[in-house]
Write a structure and sequence with these properties.
The structure holds 2 protein chains of 2 kinds. Chain A is α/β, with parallel strands linked by helices. Chain A has 2 domains: about 190 residues, D-Maltodextrin-Binding Protein, domain 2, CATH 3.40.190; about 200 residues, D-Maltodextrin-Binding Protein, domain 2. In chain A, about 45% of the residues lie in helices and about 15% in strands. In chain A, helix 8 packs across helix 9, helix 11 runs parallel beside helix 19 and helix 19 runs antiparallel to helix 20. Chain B folds into 2 domains: about 40 residues, no CATH class; about 230 residues, Orthogonal Bundle (MetI-like fold). In chain B, about 70% of the residues lie in helices and about 0% in strands. Chain B has 15 helices and no strands. The N terminus and C terminus of chain B are likely disordered. The chains are: A alpha/beta, B mainly alpha. The interface between A and B is large, with 64 and 65 residues.
Chain lengths: ~425, ~350
């Protein structure tokens, strides 16, 4: 990086050149195979097959997934699943290139809000028949999780779990401040903050400027009754009344002194673990990390600040790649793997996640920290299946939320320019994806 | 490469003896050997430098998303977008160019002057000199990820050690080193200088050791003081090294990516997002590779112009023409000898 001359400036060109040489004219991969994924018999009797299984479970969830994979391998003599675990941020950059080159995953897990993007890019195949054959129907899931896996009338993912934003609080701090129950609405939340301040915790609720600040923003926006991309998923509504109110509330935590200014990346969480911050909103995937730390934490749904209870959630979905679809054996084996995993999703609750299937959920999370969140599954909101939405948010919403929280610009102005830029990008995406 | 044509005279002679083959064939047969020697490098050069340059130009003329079968030709749209206010890429690109400019303007002078001072000290004889040299070079061997994660936590405005110790010293302890400008620029430039000064210092040191001692002795005899010796002996002696260091430092600074990607994440907002960062986001995260390629070429053009400026600044102004022409001839055998020895 320090001494590159031309090459660095041409990163994009190099990458594509390599990809193209790698796949030998990689256009229209899976053009026909994507339409039908064959029939599923429930078992796999073909020759020995090895499946490349990619996921991003790099945290406390990783060992639980590996345990499931090992169990699957020992129960299936003719299928060998090889895990490849990559950080999510890199995962989504590598999967498209790798699948096009035929060196990618046969089967894998990705986030719900990425399914549409990868479906539009022809990286993953529809799984309607698989869902039907393993008997998965909307009844076994919450409607919004089930529907969110559908892009252009086809299902692309089999839900494994749901995970959401939650409120973590320091029980010792709460006891010292005389707070008995975790706050549930704006009134009790502000009272709790004031009590904590009085008890000597000068800044009890650190407001992050980066991750997961935009997830807090989206949660608050949903609480205000606004869909972030409108009802049809075509227009960014960042600067709607609910959107502006959400960011203004976030900033007010700093202005009123509940949060120190200029909270840098991850420091609200580090401060929470060190007992310097009393309350933080973060994903339930942090449960295992907090369990292994010394902090005496509690977990609750994020309080209802605006009109109705709502919070951001996402979901891990299994997918099958267009690469696997080219090999009938790999396709069948992948389906067996997904069906088996779906049945065993109860064990996955150990990772801190909430199983997506209703039939296993209640028992699986019983007595686990995430139980209180699982009870509120109806209040979870998911991003709509808009191709490229992740990239659009990273480019527009996240900097706008950061600037709003940092006080660099008025929330309304920041969100307005972010929304107009997001609309430009989404229009460009629609043209590219031929929508 | 120009020398390949003229060098091996003797073969022509031997061909003549064999009975007068046409002259053109001679030159061709002569030409093969040097090309063979060059071949390994040439293949890499063509595959990884020339090829991507040409292919990148092609990409920049399309709406290019390598995952989609449809990559429509759009002519110069990606370029005109970059120069049209209000377009999809205009504001992001020029803000990132501004960030790169700010970083380059502040880091290059420091990376030229500070390592020179360190090299001057390291060039003296004193106890513990080797340790001293190692200490300054050590950070350079660390990767950008190590350096960036380390400093991200040290510089954290609320829980970082830097602010903590500043507080103990009675200085302001609430500077937002990673989330506000200009503090973030101080942080990024400071970290980069700390990290890479060892490299420049070592190059300077090598240059200093090549300056003949007699020149200093002569200067001393003429009554030159320390400063005059530095000004009239050291600096002119370092000139070739200085131009090399200037050029590589400018290019390295203009290509800064990892520090802001990992330490500030471009914060606040996208203010510390550099050009390479923006190109990577556009091309590799949002798959607008046509736009990203166009941005790359505009950035490259800037770097070429900057390099020409540096060449012009360091051109040989004082040396008379006759001497100048003679110099490289003398220098070449000298270098060969050193290489052999």
């Amino acid at each position: 990086m320090r001494r590159t001359t031309w090459t660095a400036a041409l990163a994009a060109g190099v990458t594509s050149a390599l990809v193209l040489t790698g796949c030998g004219g990689g256009q229209g991969v899976g053009g026909s195979t994507a339409e039908s994924s064959g029939t599923f018999s429930g078992t796999y009797d073909g020759p020995n097959v090895e499946l490349a299984y990619w996921n991003g479970f790099t945290g406390g969830d990783g060992p639980f997934m590996q345990k499931l994979v090992d169990q699957f391998n020992s129960e299936h003599k003719n299928i060998s699943v090889k895990s490849n675990t990559i950080q999510w941020a890199d995962f989504y950059q590598r999967v498209p290139a790798a699948v096009q080159a035929g060196q990618g995953p046969d089967v894998g897990v990705m986030h719900l809000d990425q399914l549409a993007t990868h479906a539009a890019r022809n990286i993953i195949i529809p799984l309607d028949d698989l869902a039907k054959e393993i008997g998965l129907t909307a009844d076994d899931f919450t409607q919004n999780i089930w529907d969110a896996g559908i892009y252009k009338d086809k299902r692309y993912g089999i839900p494994l779990d749901v995970h959401s934003l939650a409120m973590y609080y320091n029980k010792d701090h709460f006891a010292k401040a005389g707070i008995t129950d975790p706050p549930t609405d704006e009134k009790s939340f502000m009272e709790a903050l004031d009590k904590l301040k009085k008890a000597g915790f000068a800044t009890p609720f650190w407001m992050p400027s980066l991750w997961p600040s935009h997830l807090m923003y989206l949660s608050l926006m949903w609480q205000g009754g606004q869909e972030p991309y409108g009802e049809d998923g075509k227009q960014a509504a960042y600067d709607s009344d609910a959107g502006v109110a959400a960011l203004e509330w976030q900033r007010s935590m700093v202005d009123k002194g509940y949060s120190p200014p200029n909270v840098a990346i991850d420091s609200q969480y580090a401060a929470f673990k060190n007992g310097k911050n009393s309350i933080t909103w973060d994903g339930i995937w942090q449960i295992n990390d907090l369990e292994s730390s010394k902090v005496n934490y509690g977990i609750a749904p994020i309080p209802q600040i605006f009109d109705k209870p709502a919070f951001w959630a996402n979901s891990h979905h299994f997918f099958i790649s267009t690469q696997a679809a080219k090999d009938e054996n790999k396709l069948q084996a992948s389906k067996v793997f997904i069906a088996w995993m779906s049945e065993h999703s109860a064990d996955w609750a150990g990772s801190g996640m909430i199983p997506a299937r209703k039939s296993v959920r209640a028992d699986a999370v019983k007595g686990k920290p995430q139980e209180v969140i699982a009870e509120q599954i109806e209040n979870m909101h998911f991003l709509p299946p808009v191709p490229g939405v992740g990239g659009v948010q990273a480019e527009t919403l996240e900097p706008a939320v950061a600037n709003g929280v940092l006080g660099k610009g008025a929330p309304a102005d920041e969100l307005k320019s972010a929304a107009s830029k997001a609309n430009q990008l989404m229009e460009r995406n629609r043209e590219s994806f031929g929508d | 490469m120009a020398s390949t044509v003229t060098a091996p005279r003797s073969e022509t002679v031997s061909d003549d003896r064999r009975g007068g083959a046409p002259r053109r064939r001679d030159i061709n047969s002569v030409g093969i050997a040097p090309w063979l020697f060059l071949a390994p490098y040439l293949v890499l050069f063509l595959a990884f430098v020339v090829g991507p340059i040409v292919y990148g130009l092609y990409i920049s003329l399309h709406r290019y998303d390598f995952t989609l079968p449809n990559k429509p030709f759009v002519g110069l749209e990606n370029y005109t977008d970059l120069f049209t206010p209000g377009s999809i890429t205009f504001s992001a690109f020029w803000q990132s160019m501004r960030a790169t400019g700010i970083f380059t303007v502040f880091s290059v002078p420091l990376l030229l002057v500070v390592p020179l001072m360190i090299a001057l000290v390291m060039n003296r004889k004193f106890p513990g000199r080797n340790l001293f040299r190692a200490v300054f070079f050590a950070p350079y061997v660390l990767g950008v990820a190590v350096v960036a994660i380390l400093w991200r936590y040290l510089l954290d405005s609320n829980i970082g050690l830097v602010n903590y110790y500043l507080g103990l010293l009675g200085l302001p302890d609430n500077t937002a080193w990673t989330t506000s400008t200009p503090a973030a620029w101080f942080a990024l430039v400071g970290v980069t200088v700390w990290w890479t000064l060892g490299f420049n210092a070592v190059i300077y040191l090598a240059g200093l050791q090549d300056i003949p001692r007699e020149l200093y002795e002569a200067a001393e005899m003429d009554g030159a003081n320390r400063w005059q010796q530095f000004r009239h002996v050291t600096l002119p002696g370092l000139k070739p090294v200085l131009s090399f260091v200037t050029m590589t430092t400018i290019i390295a600074s203009a290509n800064m990516f990892g520090q802001s990607y990992l330490i500030t994440k471009g914060a606040p907002g996208t203010e510390t997002r550099t050009a390479i960062y923006q190109i990577a986001e556009t091309g590799l995260r949002n798959y607008q590779m046509g736009s990203a390629a166009a941005m790359s070429y505009v950035l490259t053009l800037f770097l070429i112009l900057l390099s020409l400026l540096v060449f012009w600044l360091f051109r040989d102004r004082e040396t008379p023409k006759r001497q100048k022409a003679g110099a490289p001839v003398q220098a070449a055998p000298l270098m060969l000898r050193q290489g052999k020895g």
